[in-house]
Amino acid sequence: MKDYTIAVLGCGNLGSAVTNAILNSSFEPYPAKIICCTNSEKSAENVRAKFDHEIIEVSHGIDSNKAAVAKANIIILGCKPYMYQTVYEQVKDSLNGEQLLISLLAGTTTDELSIFTPYVAKVMTNTPAQYGCGMAAVCFSKEAEAKYSELVMKLIQPIGSAVQIVEKNMDAATALVGSAPAFVLLMLESMIDGGVRMGLPFDVAKESAIKVMEGTAKMVLDSGEHPAVLKSKICTPAGTTIGGLAKLEDAGVRSGIIRAIEESALISASFSKKK
Ligand SMILES: NC(=O)c1ccc[n+]([C@@H]2O[C@H](COP(=O)([O-])OP(=O)(O)OC[C@H]3O[C@@H](n4cnc5c(N)ncnc54)[C@H](OP(=O)(O)O)[C@@H]3O)[C@@H](O)[C@H]2O)c1
User: Fold this and answer.
1) Are residues 188 and 230 in the same domain?
2) Mean of pLDDT values over 31-58
């Protein structure tokens, strides 16, 4: 595909994150134009303020959606999951059956999204994507996999990391990739509170907790070791760390986190069953 146009239908948190990642990268073939669409004028103004770039065009409203899709080779769908049928009704006359749809929606399946086009890629990503340190799990409709998998991975890679998975695992990925940043933030917040509780100034507690999270994740990544192995290396017999870990186990933190991922995945699965 050369000199192609992308229409981002729903350029909110995630639509902007993906757009930003594309703008900050230089893969080939690079899009000639990205048309960012929102529902309201106010959101369109916010997008305009965010992206001052020659390939970016910003518009809002139903007529703009239609016009953007008529020009697009690739549609990135970034609206809320319950809106996809409304958006489809708005743009269906501009669809040509050849376009590639990249969906960022939780829950909604490639089969449901095939009303737009047979070429569907479903991407589950997260808000850290805005900073180029996101994660994405990607699956494809049969038609899209053959024709577009390479291009989709190039477009998505700049958000951080991207892996292809089978669609039956997408609800698990929705929980672990999409929702888990909120779980991590809860842990981060608790660590800061713990530091403050024991007398650290807030700023010091915040910086310490952030660096501990960042550094620990990097250590696991770089060493390739299982987290349990690295954890055991921090535990001096009868020391401070094993004492703290015992308290976390008493509080059910491990099973709480496992169940949180399970619950998020079940809710994601229920979204598509409800329709
Ligand atoms: N946020 C996350 O962490 C996260 C993680 C994983 C997956 N997701 C998925 O990502 C999707 C988007 O989430 P988000 O957090 O980015 O939502 P968001 O910030 O609310 O963005 C939604 C965007 O859709 C626009 N929109 C609404 N109706 C439209 C229409 N008819 N035509 C064109 N644009 C329209 C909105 O414009 P207005 O502002 O003008 O209404 C807004 O720009 C969701 O489907 C969600 O499942 C989100």
Assistant:
1) yes
2) 95
